[in-house]
Amino acid sequence: MQGPYDQFLLFGDSITQQSCSQADGFAFSPALQDAFIRRLDVINRGFSGYNTANAVLALPGFMPKPEQARLRFMTVFFGANDACLPGSATGQHVPLNEYKKNLRDILDHPSVVAQKPRLILLTPPPVNEYQLEVAELLRGYKDRLRTAEHTKEYADACRQVGAEAGVAVLDVWSIFMAKAGWREGEPLIGSKKLARNEVLEKLLVDGLHFRPDAYRLLYDSMMDLIQNEWPDQAPDSLRFIFQHWQEAPK
What we know:
Elements: E1 6-12, H1 14-17, H2 28-35, E2 40-46, H3 52-62, E3 71-77, H4 96-107, H5 110-113, E4 118-122, H6 129-138, H7 148-165, E5 168-170, H8 172-179, H9 198-203, H10 212-229
């Protein structure tokens, strides 16, 4: 089989955009590219600072038509900015019901439906209020922008949208919180109601964005999800698009 490669499109905010950077070590996007090399093109469409309201408007500007390129997979990873507190200085907050509607609008957008990709909805990750306080002060913000409890509401909402839409959900919030040792019913790790959590601080560089260990956890979880949901689409199950060198045209 020869021809243009199908695409694995990553759509999200700064956590997606920054997943290409290898400045500090392991990076999610290059790892995914390596896993699917010669099988799929991994495309990063991360937009730093975007919330779902921005995302809905940006989507038709870059989505290829089926005759241009075919999407095999598409991730939708928003909520970290939507979950800013109401009235916060950045203006990124999106009310919870609007956030859910925007996610549905992305999943149901005609340009996405036309492609019929395998959709993966990612919940926003947890936040660490201790790290956030320092990072926000350094950026000139005097009032809090995010809290652990408020972010959890958006992770719960994202999970709900995925269940209602019948879309695969990578529950980043729960995966990270489980890694940090949190159990259901306990005060939230990352909240100032608890002492600092060393594991969560090693995952998040500023209380929100990912360190290499977090991107590795994201990558491992993504590959597990693909293996469980679509085992025929796991890298080892896919053939190279172009022949092995011994069979290549001469």
